[in-house]
């Protein structure tokens, strides 16, 4: 039986692939458990500097919860699954490394919520996506009601969630959900271009910038500025900062080591 989650690291980039294409890469409980383990491993691996999440096959990034499994579960296990997917996606959002959702196909419900938990989102232009839970008489339970309005504003999020609207990729870009839409052939190369641009920068500075943005957005401006100041202070004693100054004076590209 193939692994539900594929995980590999190349050139400081972690590739995490949802590998259940026969069921549109939907999430059952074992898949969520394994994804959580992979995310935990990534969190503590200093050699990983960028993470790309994608799905196997061409049909779906992820169709969300495994409804075939869900039909067989008692209410207590449904609550367990919802709690697990929420916690796993929160751990993805909390990763110190920048994350990129390479949306290779349709992304609905929990699949779309996984993309929302990432920092950047690139989609194939043939994909459609949305928070369709209300059409199943439930609500988004893995962060969708919280992350979508923070990303695009309350009124637009209300529209999309309450109508359970399915968006084409170009529409999702117009709403400000996607960073870019691309052809299928260009999906991973474009995500790797984003990763390469990030990897050119000081690794500690990258993580502190992400931390400052993520935590500052949830506060008032003055508290956010204090968070930024503390994040800046972390970079001051690093060898990478000194290397950047030396490289500038020597008119060469800096060589950052994350130290």
TrEMBL record:
The keyword rRNA-binding does not apply. Gene3D superfamilies: 2-enoyl-CoA Hydratase, Chain A, domain 1 (3.90.226.10), Lyase 2-enoyl-coa Hydratase, Chain A, domain 2 (1.10.12.10). CDD domains: crotonase-like. The keyword Cell cycle does not apply. InterPro entries: ClpP/crotonase-like_dom_sf (IPR029045), Enoyl-CoA_hyd/isom_CS (IPR018376), Enoyl-CoA_hydra/iso (IPR001753), Enoyl-CoA_hydra_C (IPR014748). Belongs to the enoyl-CoA hydratase/isomerase family. This is Enoyl-CoA hydratase-related protein. It comes from Fictibacillus terranigra.
């Amino acid at each position: 039986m193939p692994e539900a989650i594929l995980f590999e690291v190349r050139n400081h980039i972690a590739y995490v692939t949802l590998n259940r294409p026969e069921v549109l890469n939907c999430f059952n409980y074992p898949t969520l458990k394994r994804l959580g383990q992979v995310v935990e491993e990534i969190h503590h691996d200093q050699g990983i500097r960028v993470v790309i999440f994608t799905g196997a096959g061409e049909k779906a990034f992820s169709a969300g919860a495994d409804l075939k499994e869900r039909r067989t579960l008692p209410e207590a296990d449904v609550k367990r699954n919802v709690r697990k997917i929420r916690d796993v996606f929160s751990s993805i959002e909390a990763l110190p490394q920048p994350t990129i959702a390479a949306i290779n196909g349709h992304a609905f419900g929990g699949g779309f919520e996984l993309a929302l938990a990432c920092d950047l989102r690139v989609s194939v232009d043939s994909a459609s996506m949305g928070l369709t839970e209300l059409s199943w008489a439930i609500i988004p339970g893995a962060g969708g009601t919280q992350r979508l309005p923070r990303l695009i504003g309350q009124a637009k999020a209300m529209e999309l969630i309450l109508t359970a609207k399915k968006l084409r990729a170009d529409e999702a870009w117009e709403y400000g959900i996607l960073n870019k839409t691309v052809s299928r052939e260009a999906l991973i190369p474009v995500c790797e271009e984003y990763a390469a641009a990030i990897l050119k920068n000081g690794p500690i500075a990258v993580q502190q910038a992400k931390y400052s943005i993520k935590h500052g957005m949830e506060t008032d401006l003055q508290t956010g500025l204090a968070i930024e100041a503390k994040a800046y202070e972390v970079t001051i004693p690093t060898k990478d900062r000194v290397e950047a100054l030396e490289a500038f004076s020597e008119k060469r590209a800096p060589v950052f080591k994350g130290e």
